[in-house]
Amino acid sequence: xxxxxxxxxxxxxxxxxxxxxxxxxxxxxxxxxxxxxxxxxxxxxxxxxxxxxxxxxxxxxxxxxxxxxxxxxxxxxxxxxxxxxxxxxxxxxxxxxxxxxxxxxxxxxxxxxxxxxxxxxxxxxxxxxxxxxxxxxxxxxxxxxxxxxxxxxxxxxxxxxxxxxxxxxxxxxxxxxxxxxxxxxxxxxxxxxxxxxxxxxxxxxxxxxxxxxxxxxxxxxxxxxxxxxxxxxxxxxxxxxxxxxxxxxxxxxxxxxxxxxxxxxxxxxxxxxxxxxxxxxxxxxxxxxxxxxxxxxxxxxxxxxxxxxxxxxxxxxxxxxxxxxxxxxxxxxxxxxxxxxxxxxxxxxxxxxxxxxxxxxxxxxxxxxxxxxxxxxxxxxxxxxxxxxxxxxxxxxxxxxxxxxxxxxxxxxxxxxxxxxxxxxxxxxxxxxxxxxxxxxxxxxxxxxxxxxxxxxxxx
Amino acid sequence: xxxxxxxxxxxxxxxxxxxxxxxxxxxxxxxxxxxxxxxxxxxxxxxxxxxxxxxxxxxxxxxxxxxxxxxxxxxxxxxxxxxxxxxxxxxxxxxxxxxxxxxxxxxxxxxxxxxxxxxxxxxxxxxxxxxxxxxxxxxxxxxxxxxxxxxxxxxxxxxxxxxxxxxxxxxxxxxxxxxxxxxxxxxxxxxxxxxxxxxxxxxxxxxxxxxxxxxxxxxxxxxxxxxxxxxxxxxxxxxxxxxxxxxxxxxxxxxxxxxxxxxxxxxxxxxxxxxxxxxxxxxxxxxxxxxxxxxxxxxxxxxxxxxxxxxxxxxxxxxxxxxxxxxxxxxxxxxxxxxxxxxxxxxxxxxxxxxxxxxxxxxxxxxxxxxxxxxxxxxxxxxxxxxxxxxxxxxxxxxxxxxxxxxxxxxxxxxxxxxxxxxxxxxxxxxxxxxxxxxxxxxxxxxxxxxxxxxxxxxx
Lengths: 460, 460
Known about the structure:
2 copies of one chain form a homodimer. Chain A has 460 residues and is an alpha/beta fold. The first copy, chain A, folds into 3 domains: 14-248, Aspartate Aminotransferase, domain 2 (3-Layer(aba) Sandwich); 251-373, Aspartate Aminotransferase, domain 1, CATH 3.90.1150; 388-457, 2-Layer Sandwich (Translation Initiation Factor IF3). Chain A is 38% helix and 16% strand. Chain A contains 12 helices and 14 strands. In chain A, the strands form 3 sheets. Chain A has a 7-stranded mixed β-sheet with strand order 1-7-6-5-4-2-3, with helices on both faces. A 4-stranded mixed β-sheet of chain A has the order 11-12-14-13, covered by helices on one side. A 3-stranded antiparallel β-sheet of chain A has the order 8-9-10. In chain A, helix 7 (235-273) crosses helix 10 (352-373) and helix 8 (300-309) packs across helix 10 (352-373). The longest helix of chain A has 39 residues, at 235-273. In chain A, 58% of the residues are buried. Chains A and B meet through helix 1, helix 2, helix 3, helix 4 and helix 7 of A and helix 1, helix 2, helix 3, helix 4 and helix 7 of B.
């Protein structure tokens, strides 16, 4: 039963499990107390901080344990913004940050601040030059992920850090997806990460704040963790997080080469095995273990369900999955297809056999889903072609509007147009993406009584 | 090595350990995902919520798991205040709430709100009538602990809840110290608790919000836990928390009777064995396992250190302990002695032998500490008595000012005064408390060049 969703949460690393067990008996007391149980807890906490700080590349007194990566991001952003409030209230983020960053930015805006999203290219990367242009006199903080969680693309952190340094703006790096693979390039001012992403336990995030960075923790005062993470310390989990970070780092060099080759195989074979597929994200500057592709004429939820029945656990940035009704903001920012989206993120130890079996299973699963939805196999021109056609897809959800577009495009002559009426948010992203893949012209979007009218001109 | 500080953190209950281990292998995936590992995690989370809700006495959909009791308190208060912002911005708390409540109140005040502290009697209890008078038209929220964490006194929650209901004010009960012993009396609107206080793991708090209570979660949006607790769910710990809550509840009836008797023994024997001791807190309406007393002429840190050497782990609300420089706000609000303060809180399973040994060890430890500090053994009148004396205790820390006062009181005639100059914050609390214990008259406090002048008249 191969689990291919390490980017959501990695199975507990054996070292994490072992360290957690050992620390359960030693680390339950209050480390602020003077008696032996408290001193023992304090020793464990201090040792874990030293080990984690070394892996992060910071001083132990710069590192705080939070209760999750999300909390690390929220506290890091709010503390840095408050610490530099006199400079200004402007925040810069990339358009493809994790939702915890974007939600913190939205909260900042709701409280009277401003923020700018730096766009990305079709591979999902910001341009350092464009990022640098977004920095202003009143920019209090800039945020950039080390690598994207949905498509794996690495960001130019070192270059952006240098531009931030030159502008005197602290840079916070969300390293949640990459920290297990290696340290973040130097130059960051704040860093956030999450233990369960590298095989550590749930309940532990890391927040590092470099000495000299102005930082004012928000929320009610609490003396623990330098005032940066309220609540009783979760020492057994912290010990397990630090121990497993060291363990995965020791294995990272060899494992990243191995998984990189498996991902290269998926990247190369999926477009050969499955028609109408777009593999997204940077093919080279990327996380070793993660690849994302989108399948035309397929809805994400059915695809996940069928892959689950075939015993593969993957995730999707499509809009048609149970947890969300809008397509992934990452795919949207990249301008790539979101329908039938599949993210494969291999946990350490994934075997070549599992990947082979995935590649054997995938084509049949995709074509079954397409068949059920009545997706076009090939586009045959209709004998009695009209100059333009209108397709009413109102009330229909992704991928139906694109399927209906694909079905009728052959019925108009070359130069004619198809207008798709749709009130599904995903259509705004997927119809232009389909046009790019099919080399048809996307004319544009017009408001309609309900939803929007998307106009496509047949070119071939 | 008897550990007598369960009120800080209880050792992990065997059921918690067992449940945590089992859930480590089943509960690491994202419960929002559709694949089997996600569904399995979701089942565990749902079952834990059902079990915990039953113990709390609420519906599962009213209960949220947070990352700590402190977080539950912070989120509960900020969410309830924001939800009722149109009613007003007034908050009512008791003067002896946990610091997490008082810090949240201070943050509310810093953001433009107001709050009132309801005073307590010398036993540490609020009067329901006085609490009711503090409720105003614009009161958005009232907070009252179920029982005090430092002295064990139970609060009149049911009566206060009834008054709150009549005024239309939601009541938030901090049940951190009592939830393991039984459900909170009905009538509350919000309830907060902390798993590691009942023998559950670190990293889990409970926040219950009754249906119909206006509640607006603060901070960046996060879809997990009904939007009330940001961050990836810590399912193994949540499972262990729920399982151990059921387990300690099953043992609570018998264990509370047993520990109540041991605490009664301590309450009775300590004043017989140790001179100049004040046992504080309500002797009857109290937590079963907790007792606090204060020893004149003793500094808290040395006492804790000596008890630790004798293998007893206890805590102290004295000012002279490493983690704090001001005396406990609880003891201060009660108007009782804070110097030489010892809190004994027995974990489940504490043996009568351990308590007996504590009672054998304590008198010697206290008298040794007093001897080192040169504390008075008895007060003998001096032959050449002056009408008034000034004692300069500036720069000296608790309990030295009280010791110096006790040493010279015999040197003034009955009716004469001793003025103690002190810049130690604890003196403001401890000199009046000493006067009450010694039946001398506390005349009052006057400002001085440095610190304050505390005037005491000899009555006997």
